[in-house]
Amino acid sequence: MGNLPIWHVPNVSVTATLAYVGSQASCFCHFFHSIPYVAGTNLMTLIQVVNPVKSLKISAKSKTLKVRKSYKLKATIKPKNATNKKVTYQSSNKKVATVSKSGKITAKKKGKATITVTSKSNPKVKAKCKITVK
Predict the structure, then answer these.
(1) Rounded to whole angstroms, how far apart are CA atoms 90 and 88?
(2) To which H or E segment does residue 112 belong?
(3) Selection from 80, 106, 100, 70 nearest residue 88 by Cα
(4) pLDDT for 70-116, tens place per residue?
(5) What would the 3-class secondary structure string for 1-36 be?
(6) 127 CB-near residues (< 8 Å, 6+ apart)
(7) How far is CA 36 from the centre of its chain?
(8) Whole-angstrom distance, CA of residue 103 vs CA of residue 8
């Protein structure tokens, strides 16, 4: 299996991998539009249409919690039919507030922290929740 060149087209990201199975080869391409690629005989192109994340909305922009209390921060991805809706959560100050992979924020001690929610498929798309622990 070998990687083919990555094509760069404005607003389109393309990666292709060529896999040999016996005498046949398959080209697995991930991109928006079909770009023909011919590299000999028995080449089959499998295309997955990727719909990127455009925006991210969270259930709270700020939240005040008491020590040892928790809050579930919910993230909504747009468009609804985005190919990869997964997000990551990160705390700016884990001594004050931690956040789980599912968005559960737990207050640890008095202070302030910011929880950043980031789209896995489009890291430029982020939302922040300011946490105050009293």
Answers:
(1) 7
(2) strand 111-119
(3) 100
(4) 999 999 999 999 989 999 999 999 999 999 999 999 999 999 999 99
(5) CEECCCCEECCEECEEEEEEECCEEEEEEECCCCCC
(6) 56, 57, 58, 61, 75, 116, 117
(7) 28
(8) 34
Q: Could you tell me how far CA 130 lies from the centroid of its own chain?
A: 21
The DSSP symbol for 93 reads -
Mean pLDDT of 116-129: 96
List, in order, residues 6 or more apart from 46 with CB less than 8 Å away: 26, 27, 28, 29
> Which of 77, 76, 79 minimizes the C-alpha distance to 60?
76
Element (H or E) spanning 116, and its range? strand 111-119
Structure tokens belonging to residue 19: 């896999």
Instruction: For strands 12-13 and 70-72, give the pairing.
Output: unpaired
* Phi, then psi, of 119 in degrees rounded to 5: -65, 130
Q: Say which DSSP state 39 is in.
A: -
Residue type, 96: V
